[in-house]
Design a protein that fits this description.
heterodimer, A: about 160 residues, alpha+beta, Ubiquitin-like (UB roll), DNA polymerase, domain 1, 2 domains, 6 helices, about 15% strand, globular, B: about 280 residues, Uridine Diphospho-n-acetylenolpyruvylglucosamine Reductase, domain 2, Uridine Diphospho-n-acetylenolpyruvylglucosamine Reductase, domain 3, Enolase-like, domain 1, 5-stranded antiparallel β-sheet, 11 helices, 12 strands
Chain lengths: ~160, ~280
């Protein structure tokens, strides 16, 4: 039995030890916002944030995450109110088929928590592990830029999110 | 499940990791896990045998971080690529470590992958071996009997040295007179698979190359020193003419790859780039 801190909620899960975090999120806890795609660390669809950094849940053992703070896409909205990054993705029309978007948003959040005004180069670097097969990168970068502006005005940072 | 069942161990100290490593049979060490977990998935798909035990080094604090003491930089084995990229301690010519880790995989992978995993997986196309050899790095291992072993990165890769212990840290001599340059070519702007990389370090004395180390990685064999080129460069003046002439003094066999003519040309271009960069940073 291990305890996982996911979206500021403690889950006790009975694991054998060989389960990936992706499998535990989706199959054990029903947190299906984190997507399964390549399953070999190539596409970024399964990105989550652990201790402030975007990582790939398909290549992390859930057993290795005990004692760490895990944030998934389900942890961003405040009730019915979407997180500014989620809103910006909708407003900018950055969501096409939408399959890559949870991972894109988690990588964007990890970036914007540290730097709300990233340059294009910084955005490309931070999102280089997230592949959009619809090819919607321009709108995605625009959404990240817009979200950064909103977060800066709101003075929101990861610390504010922690306090919520 | 993506992986076949195994017993997972996550010791909190190096001592307990060594004890477990000695006691367990059929065990694999896990550093960042980015390489290991994908390998285990592949083995499962092939219905091949997988290890019964995985020993994670993730929770061992003494294997994390970068420090500088006098003339030595120590990078502990569980330091991630992203931590190396963001380190304020890797300055001056050691900043080529940052340049090289920036090229590794993608951001989420760099957040997880460690220097220990990168070096000990012994993959020929990884970025770091050429840089570590050129910087004169030494790799340190702790044996299950408590013994300490240190071997140069060159010995580890070129001579394929076998070690029975846990890789704990790498030390790099800090020499303010050294200049370093790094060059890398990848398959395409969108497919980030390295075709070749090379790293050159030297000390300019009276505008002449001195103590030069040239390490090339052709992505087919392990990174190797080009001693023919090193011998040509040493004691030669740092000039455009020397650089142009240098590319006709290569140890040809180490550039031999499956696409040799094209790749040899790329190497000549890369070597020129690196040598011109060195001259620009001359102290």
């Amino acid at each position: 039995m291990i305890a996982l801190n996911i979206n500021q909620k403690l889950y006790e899960v009975d694991l054998k030890g060989h389960e990936t975090l992706l499998e535990v999120l989706r199959h054990y806890l029903g947190l299906t916002g984190t997507k399964t795609a390549c399953e070999e660390a190539e596409c970024g669809a399964c990105a989550v944030i652990i201790d402030g950094k975007a990582v790939l849940s398909c290549i992390i053992l859930a057993s290795n995450c005990e004692g760490k703070k895990i944030t998934t896409i389900e942890g961003l909205a405040d009730g019915d109110e979407l997180h500014p990054i989620q809103k910006s993705f909708l407003d900018a029309g950055a969501v096409q088929c939408g399959f890559c978007i949870p991972g894109m948003i988690m990588s964007s959040k990890a970036l914007l928590d540290k730097n709300s005004e990233p340059s294009r180069e910084e955005m490309e670097y931070a999102l280089d592990g997230n592949i959009c097969r619809c090819g919607g990168y321009l709108k995605i970068f625009e959404a990240v830029r817009q979200a950064g502006k909103v977060l800066k005005v709101q003075g929101r940072s990861s610390k504010h999110e922690d306090a919520r | 499940m993506l992986l076949k069942p195994f017993t997972f161990h996550a010791p909190k100290t190096l001592q307990s990791a060594l004890e477990l490593y000695a006691a367990l049979r059929d065990v694999r060490l896990q550093a960042g896990g980015t390489f290991l977990l994908n390998s285990l998935k592949l083995l499962k798909k092939k219905a091949a045998k997988t290890p019964q035990n995985i020993l994670s080094l993730e929770h061992i604090k003494e294997l994390k971080g970068i420090s500088v003491e006098q003339n030595t930089v120590t990078i502990r084995s569980m330091t991630t690529m992203d931590e190396m990229h963001g380190s304020s301690l890797l300055t001056d010519y050691l900043s080529i470590l940052k340049v090289s880790v920036k090229n590794i995989a993608t951001q989420p992978v760099r957040n997880m992958a460690t220097i220990g995993g990168n070096l000990t997986c012994r993959y020929t196309w990884t970025e770091m071996p050429a840089v570590m050899i050129a910087l004169g790095a030494k790799m340190h291992f702790r044996g299950t009997d408590g013994s300490k072993e240190g071997i140069t990165a060159e010995e580890f890769f070129h001579k394929e040295a076998k070690t029975g212990g846990i890789f704990t840290h790498v030390t790099i001599p800090r020499d303010r007179d050294v200049c370093a340059a790094y060059f890398r070519a990848k398959k395409s702007p969108f497919v980030d698979i390295p075709l070749l990389s090379l790293c050159v370090t030297t000390r300019f004395q009276h505008n002449k190359f001195s103590g030069t180390i040239v390490v090339v990685n052709n992505a087919v064999t392990f990174a190797r020193r080009d001693r023919v080129l090193e011998d040509f460069l040493n004691q030669k003046g740092a000039s455009k003419e020397v650089i142009e002439e240098a590319v006709s003094h290569l140890d040809d066999p180490i550039y031999d790859t499956r696409s040799s003519d094209y790749k040899k040309h790329m190497f000549r271009v890369g070597i020129k780039h690196a040598l011109y960069d060195l001259i620009k940073t001359q102290k």
